[in-house]
């Protein structure tokens, strides 16, 4: 596949200049390209070509021959190894409130212990399950950035005791305080999800690995070395976060109020990268959403636009497998690109979205990546985006692969969620039924 970039138009050029102002700082002195004319041309690796040159023409051939190889390439070159579920995994319901959110939901808080030991490394999972609809219900699952209490002001949510990124709204000296309740509530429309008949399941990503360069020392990449039979430099923080998502899925399979066959995995930005990687490894996630996941997520790495591999490895050296740094100056040498990660979701419904002011994440690169995943979906007779050019702002497109770009910044907001909920309702083909 050879892609030539076409010009982008004056309006966008203006916006890019604005976005460029923001993101040059993130580039830490490395020049960031926001000029579509300077992206140049690039050749993407073909997911439907086996290493010996044979063309992949059936879903069976993809699943048996090509897919395992592509997944391994991502392990080796990008995210690192993905350990299996530990034998000693166990769950403990810490508390349950059947009358949460003024009776709208049942709130459950569950600890997932990764080993049988009394002081086992663990993660805290928060669930809201709608009370007024017939179960088992479909669920949205996603990690959060500042602790479970940050998703809703609900005073019953336990505060994290672990390291949290400082935030003027209530995280002081890397400890979450009462003031951090609801800090990111705008990103989690809990009541709306309850009304639409979805459970919401979340956990703090720092339970798996605190998000800083030394985070691996106290995270599962160290504490589970023996249990998982893996060394800390055989994977990265994104791998650890993704692994935790699969452990949540292990719990959901045991929770009778949840329809484990209808779990939509969602993630914003770095957590979107982790969500994609989790779903690539774990087919139990029935539907996948990437919100502004950008470089190392949905966006094509070969496009020199916005964040690049060199920049992401420089700012976040702990996120990826160490081998990913080999491509800092030469993304074209990688045997994969991110459209192949998206192709690993096939035939499951996949939704990718971007934001107009989030040029750092390369919206066009996210769109093109989704487009280039289509040939794999076609093997399953599944329709992709239905367009070949980026759709206008806030005009969602697509069938089994969906896409939108919305106005505004790098964020996940009510508009994004409306599309995600509609997409999940369409594919799960079930509207919530009130309890009789
Ligand atoms: C930085 C980083 C991105 C990431 C984002 C986020 O901007 O460069 O790759 O997606 O943080 O997680 O919000």
TrEMBL record:
Signal peptide: none
GO MF term set: carboxylic ester hydrolase activity
Stretches assigned to the 4-O-methyl-glucuronoyl methylesterase-like domain: 232-378
InterPro entries: AB_hydrolase_fold, GCE-like_dom
Keywords: Hydrolase, Serine esterase, Signal
Bilayer-spanning residue ranges: none
A UniProt-annotated Pfam family: GCE_fung
SUPFAM superfamilies xrefs: alpha/beta-Hydrolases
The protein, known as: Acetylxylan esterase
């Amino acid at each position: 596949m050879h892609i030539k970039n076409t010009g982008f138009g004056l309006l966008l050029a203006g916006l890019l200049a604005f976005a460029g102002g923001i993101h040059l700082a993130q580039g830490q002195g490395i020049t960031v390209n926001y000029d579509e004319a300077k992206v140049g041309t690039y050749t993407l690796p073909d997911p439907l070509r086996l290493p010996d040159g044979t063309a992949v023409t059936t879903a069976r051939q993809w699943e048996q021959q090509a897919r395992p190889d592509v997944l391994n390439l991502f392990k080796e070159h990008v995210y690192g190894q993905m350990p299996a579920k530990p034998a000693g995994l166990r769950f403990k319901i810490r508390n349950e409130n059947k009358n949460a959110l003024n009776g709208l939901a049942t709130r459950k808080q569950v600890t997932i212990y990764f080993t049988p030991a009394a002081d086992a490394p663990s993660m805290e999972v928060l669930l809201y399950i709608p009370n007024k609809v017939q179960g088992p219900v479909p669920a949205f699952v996603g990690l959060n950035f500042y602790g479970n209490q940050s998703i809703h002001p609900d005073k019953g949510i336990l505060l994290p005791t672990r390291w949290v990124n400082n935030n003027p709204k209530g995280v002081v000296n890397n400890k979450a305080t009462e003031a951090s309740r609801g800090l990111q509530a705008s990103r989690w429309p809990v009541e709306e999800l309850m009304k639409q008949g979805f459970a919401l399941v979340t956990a703090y990503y720092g339970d798996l690995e605190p998000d800083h360069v030394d985070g691996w020392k106290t995270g599962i990449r160290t504490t589970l070395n023996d249990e998982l039979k893996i060394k800390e430099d055989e994977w990265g923080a994104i791998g650890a976060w993704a692994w935790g998502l699969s452990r949540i899925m292990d719990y959901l399979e045991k929770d009778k109020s949840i329809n484990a066959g209808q779990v939509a995995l969602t993630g914003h930005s770095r957590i979107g990268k982790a969500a994609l990687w989790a779903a690539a490894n774990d087919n139990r996630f029935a539907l996948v959403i990437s919100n502004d996941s950008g470089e190392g997520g949905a966006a094509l790495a070969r496009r020199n636009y916005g964040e690049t591999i060199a920049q992401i490895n420089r700012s976040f050296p702990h996120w990826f497998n160490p081998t990913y740094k080999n491509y800092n100056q030469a993304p074209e040498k990688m045997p994969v690109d991110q459209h192949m990660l998206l192709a690993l979701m096939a035939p499951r419904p996949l939704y990718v979205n971007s934001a107009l002011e989030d040029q750092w994440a390369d919206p066009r690169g996210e769109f093109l990546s989704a487009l280039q995943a289509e040939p794999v979906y076609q093997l399953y007779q599944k329709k992709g985006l239905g367009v070949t050019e980026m759709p206008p702002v806030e005009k969602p497109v697509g069938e089994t692969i969906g896409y939108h770009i919305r106005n505004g910044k790098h964020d996940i907001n009510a508009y994004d969620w409306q599309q995600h909920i509609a997409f999940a309702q369409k594919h799960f083909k079930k509207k919530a039924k009130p309890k009789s």
